[in-house]
Design brief:
280 residues, alpha/beta, TIM Barrel, eight-stranded parallel β-barrel, two-stranded antiparallel sheet, 12 helices, 10 strands, 16% strand
Length: 280
């Protein structure tokens, strides 16, 4: 199934929530060991808690890479476990490079046998370095999310610089739309080339939605970073076309023995908030 159709279908049937798996060792529940085995157990526990609420999970590669080969083994096992529970898996690695290195990144995460459904991609190196990822998406029914306007406070140092009558992130949005315009899902009408736009910039999100009518927008920054349901609603069109990320507010809702129940409750709360905002 085309990636955009898959994500849209699951979002419709459950919710447009993507749970960020950011297993920082210092924040893990008390009962979880602070090692690779621990982050695997934690990831599986969160997946068990939210798999019938959320559309997707987004493992953040940095936390797994920090633990060496054992951490990367835990990453792949976490992705496989999530796929087994029907979740769409978005690997958050913000990968890219030039030439054969870029090809290798694309093969590493977007091959036919990979449990990863989509990968976040940095577009700073230009179109020729994004194309290999798009080729794998088309061949293997995968997706990418291109960084357009990120949620961090200093994103504007580069992304808001004026270039003629527009700014950098607006130009990036236009490129993202053009890259995906020939790769649309038949059921959803959305592209396998999505965009990352932070909830912390709701006015920019509102305008960027108009520049990218065929891109699914991955919206980080909800909850702990300050983004609200009203903010993220700007990324949707008739309740579709976006997926909202929450990590800390869900996965670290409790450090006690009730951490899975607390995560589930937080996800349910977010689902209710989004449902209400998208009906208005």
């Amino acid at each position: 199934m085309h990636f955009a159709d898959l994500l849209t279908e699951r979002s419709r049937s459950l919710s447009p929530i993507c749970v960020g798996l950011d297993p920082a060792l210092s924040k893990l529940p008390e009962a979880i060991t602070k090692d690779a085995a621990g982050i695997l157990a934690f990831g599986k526990g969160i997946i068990n808690a939210v798999s019938d609420i959320a559309a997707a999970v987004k493992p953040q590669l940095a936390y797994y890479e920090a633990l060496g080969w054992e951490g990367m083994k835990a990453f792949w096992e976490t992705c496989t476990y999530a796929k087994g529970h029907g979740l769409v898996v978005i690997a958050d690695g913000k990968r890219n490079d030039i030439g054969s290195t870029c090809e290798a990144y694309a093969d590493a995460y977007l091959s036919a046998h990979s449990p990863v459904d989509a990968l976040t991609v940095s577009p700073y190196l230009g179109s020729d370095t994004v194309q290999p990822f798009i080729e794998r998406c088309e061949k293997n029914s995968k997706g990418i999310f291109v960084l357009v306007k990120t949620s961090n406070p200093s994103s504007g140092e580069l992304q808001d610089l004026p270039i003629g009558d527009e700014v950098v992130h607006e130009r990036m949005a236009q490129l993202t739309e053009s890259w995906g315009s020939n790769h649309l899902g038949k059921a959803s009408g959305y592209s396998c080339v999505g965009a990352v736009v932070g909830a912390t910039y709701p006015e920019e999100l509102k305008y960027l939605r108009t520049l990218m009518p065929h891109a699914i927008i991955l919206i980080p920054g909800y909850g702990a970073q300050g983004g609200t349901a009203a903010d993220v609603a700007h990324g949707f069109v008739k309740g579709q076309g976006a997926i909202v990320v929450s990590a800390r507010a869900i996965i670290f809702a409790s450090k006690g023995r009730d951490w899975q129940d607390a995560a589930r409750a937080a996800a349910e709360k977010m689902k209710g908030e989004l449902s209400k905002a998208l009906k208005n």
